[in-house]
Amino acid sequence: MVEVASLNDFLWHTEAVPIEVVNTDDSRIPHEISEQTHLCEYALFTDVRRHFHNLTPAEQRVFPLSFRENVDPISAYVPRLHRRVYRLGDYPLLFRTFAELPQTEEGFLSFASRYGFLGGSRSSFQTLTAHGNLGELDPSTAEVTELWRMLVRKFKAIVTLWDATRALDAESLAELLQWSDGSLWLKSHLQFDLFRDDDPDVPDTELRSHGVDSGDTLGGARLLLRRLLSSLTERWARFSIAVSGSDEERPRLVLSPVDLLSAMCFQMAAAITENKDFRQCLQCEKWFEASPSTLQANKQFCSASCRMKAYRERQKEAVQLHAQGESVEALAERFESDPATIRNWICKASRRRGRKPAGEGDEQ
What is the pLDDT of residue 35? Predict the structure, then answer.
């Protein structure tokens, strides 16, 4: 029996080491960097050794053990205060956050500084780690920004096409797709591949085999979406295979992603294939899942704190408008509430200020 581990339970960690954008000609980039990387101008780079030696002795004692020169039995129990651990379930739309990144070195740096590197899941990524004798420090890690740019474009192409397809937005789909000789292409401004060849994204033979006629924008978009998603996961997603189960249970093969990039690929694939519904929080504009299975279908805020913050801001705005002369009835209509609730807001604000609300007797 083969099963896929819950993506919500996927954990990854990042070391709290400063990440910077450097030119690939920088002397700190090791000479072992591959032939491919020298074609790229910039890389996201972190120098663990330099950071470690800039720490105080007390800070060094709690630095992650994988970057310690000497490991002793006592320090092995010191909390790893320099490690940030993330759970994918807390970021249900991390793949969309990645897709919406500005395609600049600064945009990539902002994501990497918070969530860490994508992972050395393919030879294209340069993990510049010296594996020497036991206890030797890992000196540096780098990923070239040109590959980040390519991957952001891939994610963006899929997310944009998915949004337009779900919305049945024929106008947007017409701006994304192009028909030629019965085949379907993704328009050049949203190219899926960094170096595009002359082959159509969906040839006419495949369209016909799926019963999609030339000019069927929605049917073609759905088929193209599946192709782009399959191409992305096949090329970039990696998973580990583990045998699970106790002695009394039947052994199971469990598949799970091995790095952040793989997790985001699987996360996006699950969102699309399960047709999940997402919306933006009215307060912080963070995306969150709003599917009936999570009992969030009617939620407008991502958390209780955002809901309370929005509620307090509405109260404050109502009080300010009342002080400027707007009537309670008008405020009730503006904030989709009732006059009694608005009066209660005004009275509470006045009590906090230690005086009687202006015009309180006039609004009965």
Answer: 46
Show which of 125, 148, 171 is a domain's final residue. Answer: 148
Distance of CA 333 to the CA centre of its chain: 38
Q: Where are the beta strands (DSSP E) in the chain?
A: 2-4, 11-15, 20-23, 42-47, 83-87, 140-144, 177-180, 183-186, 239-244, 252-257, 278-280, 287-289
* DSSP helix/strand/coil, 87: strand
* Rg, the chain, Cα only: 27
% of the chain residues with pLDDT over 90: 11
Helix (H, G, I), strand (E, B) or coil at 95: helix
Q: How many domains does the structure of the chain reveal?
A: 2
Q: Of 113, 132, 148, which one is at a domain's C-terminal end? A: 148
Q: Are 92 and 233 in contact (CB under 8 A)?
A: no
> Domain containing 314: what range?
304-362
The whole-number average pLDDT for the span 65-79 is: 49
User: Quick one: pLDDT band at residue 298, thresholds 50, 70, 90?
Assistant: low
